[in-house]
Amino acid sequence: MSPSPSDDLWIRRFRPAPGAAERLVCFPHAGGSASFYLPVSTALAPGVDVVAVQYPGRQDRRREPGPTSIAELADRVAEALAAWTDRPLTFFGHSMGAVVAFEVARRMERSGTGPVRLFASGRRAPSRVRDERVHTLDDAGVIAELRALSGTDAQFLEDEELLRMVLPAIRSDYRAVETYRCEPGAAVRCPVTVLTGDADPKTSLDEARDWERHTLAGADVRVFPGGHFFLSERPADVLAVLTEHFAATASRTG
């Protein structure tokens, strides 16, 4: 099966690696975009073909309404990824992206095209619910949340025109993830590696460990120094974990 063109509506491929034996699919956080993973694509190519999901409501899709629910978003992404299953897939999702990746994996496993591993970064287990209502705050409240998590460029937060353009998508993302409720007993068949920051206000170590309840193939937890966006603070360490994974899969299939 041939992959979709690089300008696919849902899937972005910044550094095509047609000779790579495996593909990494990256899922952005709430308010994030596919370009967040450009450094990952640059670092892993040409050994790994890296693609990133572009949710509606941002960048070149800013005229589209943002996602209404994680379930709807997962349905659409799973459909889009059906054209990218010509080689083994590994999923990596950060924060909201981890939940989306989990739900997309469940859908794709039904057709036998699920990932070989899911990396769940910066997100508590799907069944661990907190009463979070960022999506109900006014614009100032949403912006304060973005500042607190330190995942958004401070310069960007000072640009009122840009903020007005993206706040609807950010609010839509938060609504989708904050109203998400995992189906009882939901689990993927692939192993899960959980990445978490030791000072992440959004995920405790106990909540991270609970991912083991959502996989039939075992879970391991990697703890990094840092907060919710530890992966931006320690990119080399996160890339090392991914490189280790792809080296292991290559040795098993080589």
From TrEMBL:
GO terms for molecular function: hydrolase activity. Keywords: Hydrolase. Residues 25-246 form the Thioesterase TesA-like domain. One of its GO terms (biological process) is lipid biosynthetic process. It holds the Pfam family Thioesterase. The keyword Repeat does not apply. It comes from the Bacteria. SMART domains: PKS_TE (SM00824). Belongs to the thioesterase family. This is Oleoyl-ACP hydrolase. It comes from Streptomyces echinoruber.
